[in-house]
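Cross-check.
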Amino acid sequence: MTAAGSAAGAASATHPGAGEAGTAGAAVAGAADGWAAVGGAGAAGGRAADPGGAAYIARFARELVRLRMSGQGGEAYALLCAAAGWPPERLPALADALARAGLGADWATLLWEAAALPPERLAAVAAALGAGGRHADCAALLRQGVARPASDIAEAAVALLDTGREREAGAVLEAFVRARTAEDAARAARRDPDRLVPRLLRAAAAVSAGHRRDLVHALRVAKLPDS
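Predicted model, tokenized:
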């Protein structure tokens, strides 16, 4: 079972009526796994299971509306967890579909789940949102992710830089500098000092002169370049 399926099982266990049918949790988990599988790659040959992405996304949005209207919050949450694992390039279109369906709160929940993805996956989602013109969503995703270990933030920033997403890399570093200590920023810089130090310094300067001064000191203590 996928991680989304496990989350679905846990969510359904707290849903009213779940105890009335011993298979309720398994059914929800199976449904979530099905949406995750179709949203990603098919089982056979790794081919996309849904060649008509727009139609699939519309069906997904309708299913979420149905679940919300019938009070099945646990099942809706499970589907959102599944969607967080979709190919990142599909997520801007999903955001549009959820907005049209009046499900903006569900999109915010999906972003929250995506913020907990592994660093490279987080970077891929941020890059897809940026490429899709959803810069506010990208910034929100990155702000939510800055509570992660400094090494995770560094990995995400490097992954973005490796794919040419300079804007998104700058956004994650600025959010990190705003929320964390100068010592945390210096720890992140160790991943790739040549690229991360100057960008962290720019991010710190964008916050305040004091942030930049503190970061310069932390970099010197860590025996890293400070310019």
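DSSP finds 13 helices and no strands in the chain. Confidence is low (pLDDT under 50) at residues 1-28, 40-49. Passed to J.P. for a second look.
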